[in-house]
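Action item from last week, closing it out:
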Amino acid sequence: MDNGELIDVGEVTLFVRRLGQRREDKPSLVVLHGGPDIGHSYLLPGFEPLARDHHVVLFDFRGCGRSSRNLPEDALQPESVIEDAHRLIDILELGQVDLLGFSTGGRAAVQFVDKHPDQVRRVILASTSAYSSADNEPYLENWEEYQRRRAAEEAQNWALRNSTIFVWDLELAPAYLNLLDGLDEGDWSYEAYLAGRMHPWFSGDPEEILRASGKPILILHGDKDMGFPLQLAHRLHASVPNSDLAIIENAAHMCHFEKPDIWSQHIREFLSRK
């Protein structure tokens, strides 16, 4: 596996990891991770199987992981992440790419395809939502298992780091928690979001942005996702005719970790379509 490198994109230096071999017959897949409080390494279990026949480029957002740190709050606005990705694609001479946004990164992907449509061939929105956090609440309020797991996390003062919420199979939760060990929290502050000091990840109507893009879109979701309930994935799919919906059974928000082979195969099949 590529151990990664630091690449200067102008304002900041990004930690970049490239998996698999560059291929003339297939665009590279560029990944926008979630959080954005930690880097991309927790996503590797889902991309290592895909890298057997695809070139995958992952990077830590500015202020995360091993990219430039200790940045002022005004340097951490979401639009800066979009421009970092844009510059990175140019610097690596990737040409037109396929773009995957995971969780919060899915919201960044909506903005990217709106701002830089010519750089994108296909879009994958994985374990994410185009809607506000308020849209989650009606589904989570009435989900007994979610409420039970949330209470257990609170009872341990969130020391489990959402591992029992983001992973459906509780036997896998300790391994997921172990995967997070050593991943330092970044410069990003949720307090800044709550205080209204941070810009939104995208501007405009996400459904209209995705429809107008004309890009083939894969919505990839675990049926037990307690971060962004499955109903929101169905809603987006119904509103965006150029989208496909792939559902992974008995997997939660981190379905790339719980079912990596199934998860990567859905991506492989989508990217290989003519």
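Closing note: Strands lie at 5-8, 13-19, 29-32, 56-59, 97-102, 120-126, 217-222, 243-248.
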